[in-house]
Amino acid sequence: MASIAVKELCKTYKGAAEATLKGLTFAFPEGKIGGLLGPNGAGKTTTISILCGLVKADSGNVMIHGLPQEAAHREQIKKIIGIVPQQIALYPQLSAVENLTYFGNLYGFKGKVLYNRIMHYLEVFGLEKSAHKEIHKYSGGMKRRANIIAAILHEPDLLILDEPTAGVDVQSRSMILQFLRRYNEQGASILYTSHLLEEAQLLCDEVVIMDEGKMILQGKPELLISALPECRNLEDVFLHYTGHALRD
Amino acid sequence: MLRLLATIRKEWQLLLRDKTGLTLLFVMPMVLITVMALIQDAPFKDYQDVKFDILTVDNDHGRLGRYIREGLASGGQFNIIDTLDGRPVTEQQARELVNNGRYKISIIVPAGATAAIVSNANRIVNDITQRMGMSVSLPVKKGADSMNVVIYFDPAAKKAFKGAIHQALDNFLTQVETDMLLDRIKQQLRNKEVQATPNDTLPIRLQAVGLKEHATGNSRQLDVVSNSVQHNVPAWSIFAMFFIVIPIAGNMIREREDGSLLRMKLIPGSYLLILAGKMLFFVGICLLQFYLMMLVGIYAMPLLDLPKLAMGHDQGATLLVAGAIGLAATAYGILIGTLFKTPNQALNFGAISIVILSAIGGIWIPLEVMPVNMQVIGRLSPLSWGLDAINDIYLRNGDISYVWKNVLRLVLTGGVMLAVAGYVEKRRMN
Question: Where does the ABC transporter domain start and stop, copy by copy (chain A) (predicted)?
Answer without folding.
Answer: 4-237
